[in-house]
């Protein structure tokens, strides 16, 4: 199979993931929820934290020219990211977005709650917005960098990783920050 095939596949996967995530916002949740659903945000936060650490470890491995450890670490990080995506989709199929600042968990952020969270709400939304936008952007970059890395196109891999790595790390770290900031407002 040639490069063109894999690049098309990467763009198809990216489009499908984006469409599924958009559909999650539009489709109402089922009436019944499985009991495990409420553990998923915590697992998602843990996966993001683990991926953040693994990405830094991967950078250390490649800086020390330990290519095999670098590859293994990236494969583990990629698998964890895929598991994250599955958990994210399952959770948001059943639970719609939690409102930041909803102290009394009634799905309404009233004036008193807005006053209580203050400017933190704007910081949260800025971090969340950049996290979401860059998560969309980074998916094809990650997939292309994996394609280049596994086919041992080192120079092409380095060129894409120069952009993919910091964005992926930012998305992983801000995923943890978003989790820590929103978790007090979960309605379960």
From TrEMBL:
Instruction: Give the transmembrane region(s).
Output: 5-24, 36-62, 74-94, 122-147, 167-186
Please name the Pfam families in this protein's record: DUF420
Its keywords, alphabetically, are: Membrane, Transmembrane, Transmembrane helix
Top-rank taxon of the source lineage equals: Bacteria
Q: Does the keyword Lipoprotein apply?
A: no
**Family annotation (PANTHER family):** DUF420 DOMAIN-CONTAINING PROTEIN, HYPOTHETICAL MEMBRANE SPANNING PROTEIN
Q: What is this protein called?
A: DUF420 domain-containing protein
From which organism does this entry originate? Answer: Pedobacter frigoris
